[in-house]
From TrEMBL:
NCBIfam families listed in its UniProt record: APH_3p, APH_3p_I
Descriptive protein name: Aminoglycoside 3'-phosphotransferase
Provenance organism: Sphingomonas prati
Catalytic activity entry: kanamycin A + ATP = kanamycin 3'-phosphate + ADP + H(+)
EC class name: transferase
Gene3D superfamilies recorded: 3.90.1200.10, Phosphorylase Kinase, domain 1
Family of the protein in this entry: Belongs to the aminoglycoside phosphotransferase family.
Known EC number: 2.7.1.95
């Protein structure tokens, strides 16, 4: 398993509005969850904190912009990266952020096998706290109707990466995923404030507790299984016992398999 999930690299070409802020740093490129953009970790500058830089072009620039806006809102509810610099042109976006302390949940599960049940308990507690934020306080919609419209646009534009589908859907087309989702509708919503991409690489842990989250561009009001399904799927790499523990720690005795299946299919299209 690749615990670090990043590789050293030279600095990319940068606009002048950011170049001065990142002088003197070593660069590493993140290989996880780039979704068509790039993510770099900037580190090793004496007396300076680590930083992250996200870059997107075209529609991905809109995703980077969405994340910048959501970081500002989430800062009142959870520890998230602080925006240092944001630059936007009609076709490009750069988002420079502070790093959150700690290690990702994925790193913790790999490095400390004996602590895996405690890590899942910490993730469940944090997820319950996130889902308890009053929906009236959240200005962002991410329900399955909205996400379906985005997914259809991505299918029609031919930008769905079918080579990145989960193993059980190897060889599927995007249209087949769409048809499988339609067969699971209608779905009664259970709206909460969701992270939107609650994967093991997006949650930071320190001293046994979740200290914050990253990659929040999809944050918004949606069914709670938007988060539960993605986390449950990630935990499958470490065995079904941890998947079961997720639901028992969260407080669900009988997981809704229909909603699990729907949200995992939906996630394939992004």
């Amino acid at each position: 398993m690749d615990v670090e999930r990043e590789h050293p690299c030279p600095p990319p070409s940068l606009p002048s509005g950011i170049a001065a802020d990142v002088a003197g740093y070593a660069w590493a490129r993140d290989t996880v969850g780039e979704s068509g953009g790039t993510v770099h970790r900037l580190h090793g500058k004496t007396g300076a904190p680590d930083l992250f830089l996200k870059y997107g072009r075209g529609t991905v620039a809109n995703d980077v912009t969405d994340e910048m806006v959501r970081l500002g809102w989430l800062a009142d509810h959870s520890q998230v990266p602080r925006v240092r610099t944001f630059l936007r042109t009609p076709n490009e976006a750069w988002l420079l952020m502070t790093a959150i302390p700690g290690r990702t949940a994925y790193q913790m599960l790999v490095a400390h096998p004996d602590d895996r049940p405690a890590v899942v308990a910490a993730l469940s507690l944090y997820l319950r706290q996130l889902h308890a934020i009053p929906t009236a306080a959240c200005p962002f919609n991410a329900d399955h109707g909205f996400r379906l419209s985005q997914a259809k646009a991505r299918i029609d534009a031919g930008v769905v990466d079918t080579d990145d589908f989960d193993e059980e859907r190897t060889g599927w087309t995007a249209d087949r995923v769409w048809d499988a989702m339609q067969a699971l509708l209608p779905m009664a919503p259970d709206p909460v404030v969701t992270h939107g991409d609650f994967s093991l690489d997006n949650i930071l842990i320190e001293d046994g507790a979740v200290v914050g989250c990253i990659d929040v561009g999809r944050t918004g009001i949606a069914d709670r299984y938007q988060d539960l399904a993605i986390l449950w799927n990630c935990l499958g790499e470490f065995g079904p016992a941890l998947q079961d523990r997720l639901f028992s720690s969260y407080g669900i005795s009988e997981p809704d398999k229909r909603k699990l299946d729907f949200h995992l299919l939906l996630d394939e299209l992004f």
